[in-house]
Amino acid sequence: MTRSFFLFLPFLFASLPHVHAQKLRKADRQMLTEIQTDIQYLSGNKLEGRRAGTPGEKLASDYIISSFEKTGLTPLGDQGSWLQGFEIYDGKDISRSRFSINNAALVLNRDYFPLDFSANQKVTGSPAVALQESGSPWFYDLKEIIESTQNNPHFDMEKALREKTKNFAAKGATAVIFYNSSKSDDGVEFNPAEGIAPEGIPVIYVTHAGRKKYLTDISQTLDVDIDINMEEKKRWGHNVIGYLDRGAPYTVVIGAHYDHLGYGEDGSSLYRGTEKMIHPGADDNASGTAALMELARMLHKTKSLKSNYLFIAFSGEESGLLGSKYFTLHPELDLSRISYMMNMDMIGRLNDSSHTLIIGGFGSSPQWASLISSTVNKKIFSIREDSSGVGPSDHTSFYLKNIPVLFFFTGIHPDYHRPTDEADKINYNGELQVVKLIYSMAEKMDGMNKPVFAKTRDAQYGETPAFNVTLGFMPDYSFNGNGVRIDVISTGRPAEKAGMQAGDVIIRLGKYPVKSLQTYMEALSKFNRDDKTTVEYNRGTEVKTADVQFN
Ligand SMILES: [Zn+2]
Predict the structure, then answer these.
(1) Distance 57 CA to ligand 1 centre (A)
(2) 16-90+234-268+287-411+419-445: what fold?
(3) pTM score, two decimals?
(4) What CATH number belongs to 473-549?
(5) Counting beta carbons within 10 angstroms of the beta carbon of residue 115, is it exposed (0 to 12), middle (13 to 18) or buried (19 or more)?
(6) 344 CA distance to ligand 1 middle (Å)
(7) What would the pLDDT profile of 217-264 be if each residue is shown by its tens digit?
(8) CATH code for the structural domain at 95-229
(9) Residues with beta carbon < 5 A to ion ligand 1?
């Protein structure tokens, strides 16, 4: 935080009536201290980056509960508790599987892996690789399938292997061991997806490395010992839910996620170092969580307010908005009684020169425009409105239930999703101003009926195409122009290697025009690792082209 901001401080307060300034200053100092204390605790090493379902999450939820209790909220979680638990699927644990040929143990993942529809079973036998006898494990070379389908772009290998397995089992195979003696890639990989129905027998794929080592002579008879053990890994995330019930017909939801990346083990970390590091998540999202606890104190203290307020600290946000999605699917109160939802995610890094505050969900109610213009102090904030009700945080789950939403975000920064997102980089005064703005909006809306809901122009949730590669940058979510504007470039990734910079606006990838984040993601989904292509982009008024290779 640069000193220049402090220069503004007396000016900001000077405009308010004198007596009030005196009192306010004391009140503001107290709020600043509370926010600072909460952010420092939540982003402390003891909480190990607050990954959902870990002891760090528990420490954080205990902290939030004791704050809600002190404030005087009532619990509205499972069975009258403060917590609403939900399962998070963590892939499959196959580490206890075993496979040996002639008493030599093959190495999991390097030499072999079970296919996702394999049964969990133990099987032994002495099959001849080239023979398929009932009552014995069967070996099968994929060479034939690959050669007969290589001109069919829509061929689904996974489906074909499952068909083969069904067929072989019906003929008495006790297990199937697939391998590929051709040079062509077969695209067989372990799919950790959840809820895949198993077949009746164990199914194994031997990799090229395993084949070269153990299946050199297919005229042989081999002693095989198979023990497949696949378990779905799950952990439990916990939303923390506190209610300020004033007996009103409608309830305002105020939310912020409190989970973060832990040690970055789930793959969404941008940290590329080798040393295991805690991701403190001071801005993402200890800042929003501290604001949630502060707003609970403020709204509870103001006895004249009429609406009910539901404060939800979501977990599982970093794994795909899981906590908020779960809440909207298992609401602790009737969703039609929710008037609107305000979400705070990363509000701790207000830029002290641009003062940019991004307000998302702007288009989800026609009433937002007048609310924002009547509450925002232009001396403190430069507002960027993002119309869409869909965005990279928990308000999306409520918007999809036709609830008007407002999303508060002070923008991306180079510490995003890195171990460097620390408490000493938080703009505490900026955060206080955001909290006070949100309070004044709630106060203005208090006692009113449900604002009108409006659908915003955006992609339907779930239509987002899957992609395997990226160029390695963070898009500017507040950019509304044609193309995708680069906000932060990741080091050592294709975009940087191609000489691209923050501020460049991508307008074409290969033969695909890029108009928005959506079309960019669609274009990306057409490329794979190691693919080469060209990217066209605007730098200022200049149109530039660069060759890129995905890694
Ligand atoms: Zn976040």
Answers:
(1) 15
(2) Aminopeptidase (3.40.630)
(3) 0.77
(4) 2.30.42.10
(5) buried
(6) 9
(7) 888 899 999 999 999 889 999 999 999 999 999 999 999 999 999 999
(8) 3.50.30.30
(9) 284-285, 345
